[in-house]
Amino acid sequence: MKKILTLMLAAGMICAANSKASAIDVQMDGVYNFQFTQARALQDGNEPSGKMDAATQFVEVGMTFTASENLSGYFKLWSKWEWGLDTDDVESGEGKNSPGGYPNAYVKLAYIDWKVPGTPVQIRMGRQEVELPAVALGKNPAIWSSDPSDGIAVSADINDNFAVSGFWTRYDRRHSWITSKAQTADVFALLAELKFEGFSFQPYVAFAAQDTGTMQNGNDTSNALTPGGENTPGEKYRNQTYWAGINGEMSLFDPLTVKADFVYGDRDFSSSTGLPSQHGYWFDGAISYKTDFGTPELAAWYGSGDDKNVAYPYQENMPTLCGRFGGSYGFFNGSGLEDNWLMDNHTGLGTWGVRLAMSDISFLEDLSHTIAVVYASGTNANDNAGFGLDPWKYMTHKDSIVEFDFSTTYEIYKNLSAYLEVAYVIENFKTHNDGAFNARSTKYDNGWQVALQLTYEF
Q1: What is the mean pLDDT of residues 99-123?
Q2: Distance in angstroms (rounded) separating the CA atoms of residues 30 and 60
Q3: Any idea which of 1-10, 34-43, 228-237 has the lowest mean pLDDT?
Q4: Does residue 190 have a pLDDT over 90?
Q5: Global confidence as pTM
Q6: Domain spans of the chain?
Q7: In a 3-state reduction of DSSP, which class is residue 290?
Q8: What one-character DSSP code corresponds to residue 326?
Q9: DSSP string, 106-129
Q10: CA–CA distances in Å: residue 5 to residues 42, 62, 244, 360
Q11: Does domain 2-457 have CATH number 2.40.160.100?
């Protein structure tokens, strides 16, 4: 991987040196992140301490190759490692320096952008980040750009008020080019955007065809959820999933802003298992008011949950494929850190909650703060605790958390910033001794995280 990185950088310099002769303009960009973390994850209180001490480095190097305003290409390498890992760990891509199963250095993005001649149609082809839109809390729990994927995206501005876009992308999991052995997820989406003075909205639909091997076990809500619980292997579940959603933003009464998202999804397992479909909905909204001393915001969300008669866990939660939810720094996926050690619920599905925050608090130049308090509880029936899933992955009506968040950003120089983030999660999970919850542990512990991140971006 070191040889590949060296060759790519050398190629970029050669292209830059010859850019005049070839009429190609080459521009480089990149990010260096250094993160220092102390944390204790939410965990079974009967297990050994979950305290963590990590120093992690991330590097991204990108190159843009521009032929004209109608044609360009982009290429980005990404690398991550923990300080103190031995050479074998780094070279083999084992441990925490291998997120998503990638080696220590890999091609994160590689695409070309080109415009269809004589039209407003813009096409992006190759490895890219695609997502469904979200406005209220920043991320869509159905599909989000948490993982790069390979495909084609098309967009066009029809006029000043109306734009359309769509994409086909393939998430690859232990793939095979033989159709009968394929282990991929193909996603198709169609989106529209309508903008008017003071408000805008985006309706969209999406479809995913998932082969075997693309599902995850019940305790892992980071990707698609598997019916049958933690111990059910996901390899045998082929399925088709549909989503339909809409979001909107109103700024007509600026500085008052109102944002909302709604999405419904249905995942059909009948063709491969005979099980009932996984189906559910998600709603979130936020209202904020920008002032000279900061921006107060009140946000809330609700994700449909399982009743006590479901055949498998998550059956009446909205289906997800690499979805994310930014409800809080620690318990959910709203951290500003490159690597969140505390995160225990990626999507927020099967929960409801409220968040009160004040952002952009600033008393000194180049220094700003955000504070927030979050309450969340489950929407799944209490009887379903018998599925044996971790309470931070599958919250019932009687489970709840309170989280306190604080962050500070300091712009040291134009391209160098420091970011401090603190999160403390107080758990109120039902335990083994509470009737229907006898499949759980007898004790759980609170979680916390303190992290400092230095970022050099060019």
Answers
A1: 83
A2: 5
A3: 228-237
A4: yes
A5: 0.86
A6: 2-457
A7: coil
A8: -
A9: EEEEEEEEEE-TTSSEEEEEEEE-
A10: 37, 11, 41, 38
A11: yes
